[in-house]
């Protein structure tokens, strides 16, 4: 277990990556999905109040940082309207479903249901950016996800009591960022599509003829 002050080191590392993303957004080099980044702002700030109320350890500092960082990105996206990913029905649907999850989290008195609905809301908020990272990784910047991966790992390494209040959100961030880093840096989506295009295809006429012969 690491000393608790490593949380602040992790926060600093994570914030640096997010600021790079905001800079690239302002310059038009990155196109953030506003649905994801807006909800990534709202959800952690709501979770922050819950963690403080639950007397969570210093891990709440990371939650604060992962809420403030996306807010900076959203502001940067309004400074450069050309650097915004065009939203479609899938993005809107995920955003609305995520909001429903947040509402359930706010109104329910059941701790288990509250935790589940919050994590569902955060996961749904991430789907538009996951889809974008699969379709067009060149429109993303890997740094905020890579540094958030380091930040969440350091945060988990400082946990003294492994309760849901302390570890649920950092674990979800770690897994989501791990997937995003793989999709963006590995360009898995385009490579997979290229491999599919290179596969030999059988003309439809031959398929029909083979069926008739049988």
Short characterization:
The chain has helices at about 5-25, 35-55, 60-80, 90-105, 110-135, 145-155, 165-185, 190-200, 205-214. By secondary structure, the chain is mostly helical.
Structural commentary:
The chain has 214 residues and is mostly helical. It has one domain. It contains 9 helices and no strands. α2 runs antiparallel to α3, α2 packs antiparallel against α5 (111-135) and α6 (143-157) runs antiparallel to α7 (164-186). The radius of gyration is 20 Å and the shape is globular.
SSE blueprint and pairings:
Blueprint: H1 6-27, H2 34-53, H3 60-79, H4 89-107, H5 111-135, H6 143-157, H7 164-186, H8 188-198, H9 204-213
Topology, number of strands: 0
Radius of gyration: 20 Å
Number of DSSP helical runs: 9
Give the tally of structural domains: 1
Distance between the termini: 67 Å
- Low-pLDDT runs of 5+ residues are none
Strand content: under 5%
The helical percent reads: over 70%
Residue-averaged pLDDT, rounded?
82
Shape: globular
How is the quaternary structure best described? single chain
Q: Give helix and strand order, one letter per element, not per position.
A: HHHHHHHHH
Question: Given the helix and strand composition, which structural class is it?
Answer: mainly alpha
Largest sheet features: none
